[in-house]
């Protein structure tokens, strides 16, 4: 397997793909103004080649495209690939689950050498529950993320309210997925959520008190700091011994609007930032331990992680650190997928042998 990242910061797709010759799969990351044009143009240049796409920034090697450019990740080599879509993501994605079941058979998917990469337009939690009802039975891993603009593409066709996916079987080696959390729990800060609004991702109360007041009192901050405090102190939802990060979007009265759904009686915790470079180093070392040869790494980094890393003047250092693994490229997403989990402020990735 070989992974190639090509980009044009001005949005010229023809320039970006000029050196791509024999792709088995194409991942498109475009901008809002040119997305439709780029989807059509990519299909015209590579008719019949499986592709999925979304609106979002990207990175590869030590290059970052955050705004108006276009990027394509081409995967070549001894791969079996099929791409498809689950429609009606906000209401009934299960209606289309038969497509995924058939596609698993088409690539002869198996636990150790197959991955599902998906791009979603929204309603991620419902979509992931649907997808993993099939993938989980086969022990097939998934990584992916949410794009911007409420639109995604597959094989030259654009969909709103949908999840597009690529099933990839690596015929030359194994595949393994990872999730990186740069936060840890603040001791003795556990909450029971109540008066939530699932449809609006609102938390009304924590431990019976207004959510905004609880959050600000613990951190001793005012309204002004709330806009960026989630960079350092997001919330976390307990999932066994694991923690799913929940980013705070904004304050709505005394409520907290989040980027991820919270339900009444959910057990939440306050998180705090760890030493970023130390966490990244541990992730890299674990991947090195698991692989003697790496063909490529595809990752999704949350846009809030990107903003935090940029604020700390760390993102270039981060890309340089990840480059020791080999060809590394990915999407700056608006929510990250890791198997059945929908998380925020996280990095998820798949490593190909």
TrEMBL record:
Residues covered by the FIST C-domain domain? 211-340
Tell me which residues make up the FIST domain: 22-210
Taxonomic lineage from the root: Bacteria, Bacillati, Bacillota, Clostridia, Lachnospirales
User: How is this protein named in the record?
Assistant: FIST N-terminal domain-containing protein
Superkingdom assignment:
Bacteria
């Amino acid at each position: 397997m070989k992974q190639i990242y090509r980009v044009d910061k001005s949005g010229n797709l023809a320039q970006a793909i000029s050196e791509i010759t024999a792709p088995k799969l194409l991942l498109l990351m475009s901008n809002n103004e040119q997305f439709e044009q780029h989807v059509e143009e990519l299909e015209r240049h590579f008719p019949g080649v499986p592709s999925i796409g979304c609106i979002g920034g990207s990175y590869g090697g030590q290059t970052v495209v955050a705004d108006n450019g276009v990027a394509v990740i081409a995967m070549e080599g001894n791969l079996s690939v099929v791409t498809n879509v689950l429609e009606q993501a906000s209401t009934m994605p299960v209606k289309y689950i038969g497509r995924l079941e058939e596609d698993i058979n088409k690539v002869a998917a198996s636990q150790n050498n197959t991955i599902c990469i998906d791009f979603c337009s929204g309603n991620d939690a419902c979509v992931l529950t649907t997808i993993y009802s099939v993938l989980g039975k086969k022990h097939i891993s998934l990584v992916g993320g949410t794009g911007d603009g409420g639109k995604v593409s597959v094989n030259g066709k654009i969909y709103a309210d949908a999840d597009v996916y690529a099933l990839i079987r690596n015929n030359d080696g194994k595949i393994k997925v990872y999730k990186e959390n740069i936060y840890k729990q603040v001791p003795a800060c556990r909450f029971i959520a109540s008066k939530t609004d699932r449809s609006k991702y609102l938390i009304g109360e924590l431990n019976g008190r207004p959510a905004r007041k609880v959050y600000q009192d613990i951190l001793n901050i005012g309204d002004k700091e709330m806009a960026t405090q989630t960079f350092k102190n997001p919330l976390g939802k307990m999932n066994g011994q694991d923690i799913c990060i929940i980013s705070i979007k904004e304050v709505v009265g005394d409520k907290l609007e989040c980027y991820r759904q919270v339900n009444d009686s959910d057990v939440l915790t306050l998180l705090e930032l760890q030493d970023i470079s130390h966490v990244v180093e541990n992730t890299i070392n674990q991947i090195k331990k698991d692989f003697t040869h790496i063909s490529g790494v595809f990752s999704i980094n949350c846009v809030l992680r990107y903003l935090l890393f940029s604020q700390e003047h760390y993102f270039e250092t981060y890309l340089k650190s990840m480059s020791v693994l080999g060809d590394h490229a990915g999407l700056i997403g608006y929510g990250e997928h890791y198997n059945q989990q929908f998380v925020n402020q996280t990095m998820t990735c798949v490593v190909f042998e």
